[in-house]
Amino acid sequence: MKPVNKKTLSIWNAFLTELKSVFRDKAVFSTFVSTALVVMLVYTYVYSKQVVREVPVAVIDLDQSRSSRDYLQMLAATEEVTLKKDFLGLNQAKAAFFKGDVKGVVLIPENFSSDIRRGRLVNISVYADASYMLYYRQIMGAVNVVNGYYNAGIDVKKLMSAGNTAKQAQAIHSPVTASSISVYNPVSGYGSYIIPMVTALVTQLVVLMAIGILGGTRRENKELHFLFAVVLTPGGTIPVLLGKGLVYISLYFFILLLQTGIIYPLFGIPFRGAFWGMLLFMLPYILAVVFLGIALTGLFRRREDAIMVLIVTTMPFMMLSGLSYPIESFPVFYQYLAKILPSSWGIKGFVKITQMGVTIRDVMEEWIALWVLASVYFMAAAFFLKQTAQKSLKDSLVEKA
Questions:
Q1: Which among 145, 228, 247, 378 is least surrounded, fewest beta carbons within 10 Å?
Q2: What is the pTM of this model?
Q3: How, if at all, do strands 81-84 and 125-128 pair?
Q4: In terms of domains, do 257 and 136 share one?
Q5: Judging by DSSP bridges, how do beta strands 104-108 and 125-128 pair with one another?
């Protein structure tokens, strides 16, 4: 009978021990379940409409002419806004705006029609809620599009009255045109932008939370040296770390396949890459997060410590991930700080694979960076794991004495 390699056996024992701990600890297990079945499902559903439509806008027409009505009909035909016309003046519209009943106000001035006929510049006042950029973009976008078409109609009519054909008038008015093509996000949807980034970021937060809670519990109960006794032997940290890493790789590979293979298509979020390429890229990402989490457990004396620390650091993690603002626009110090976090590289590569359809060769920079981080955090995790196990054994012996 072929002898079993002790290191292989240690990896398997560490894998089983960690896996049992994940399923036995209600807080850790619920963290994974809530992420896979609740958080990502609900989060994806919330943004499944992709774009904000029919933003309520108050309209004040002080001209009450055919021209002003034509303009408002064009504005009402856009999908971005829905017009509310029951306002007698600006003060009434302002009151509705501050109450939140409308997100913008469009004011057509007196003499709108007569000034256009006389060739005078007409100024339509638009007030939009810039505190919410999606509302602001939709309102201003709709008004700018209508202004473009309305102005074009006026110019073309003038040119046709001068003897030009409709085609000639259009060419004179707009000698240069541009075709706008939204690459990788054809509908310019917010969901297609945010969901892949959140998927990668939540991977880091959930794994760190699970490892922190388990690590804090074991340190509080002084049981690390008992559960992973091999850690105390020379080179014993290596199989334990690999076994722990395999647990979270297995769990999160399942969650990722569930997310990208079922939830994404269910709510219309595109997935343009290959599943094997995505999993291959995520391998060093998850390992880097696991080893970072194990290294940080040296700071947690109780399971509550892990929860408190991760709650405090969630917002900085999110900001440094580039989720809300491009990393390239950060101050130099924070750009370097972001590079030591797995999520900064993981999000970038994950989005490229899932949304741009690139292969692993095209994200080699991010992939190598994640392997470097995984190696560095592996050494840190080995050091702190050994230290924690030795202290656990010492404290246990003191209590028995």
A1: 145
A2: 0.77
A3: unpaired
A4: no
A5: antiparallel
pLDDT digits (tens, 9 = 90+) for 210-233: 888 877 776 666 655 555 556 666
**pLDDT tens digits, 320-362:** 877 777 888 888 888 888 888 898 899 889 989 988 888 899 9
**Interatomic CA distance for residues 273 and 200, integer angstroms:** 15
Sheet containing strand 125-128, strands side by side? 81-84, 55-61, 104-108, 125-128
* Same-domain check for residues 73 and 162: yes
- CATH assignment at residue 124: 3.40.1710.10
Place of tokens 């491009």: 326
Determine the structural domain holding residue 159 and report its residue range: 55-173
pLDDT (0 to 100) of residue 365? 92
Same domain (yes/no): 259, 296: yes
> How many domains, the chain?
2
Instruction: Decide which of 59 and 161 is more confident.
Output: 59
Distances (CA, A) of 123 to 115, 363, 375: 10, 49, 62
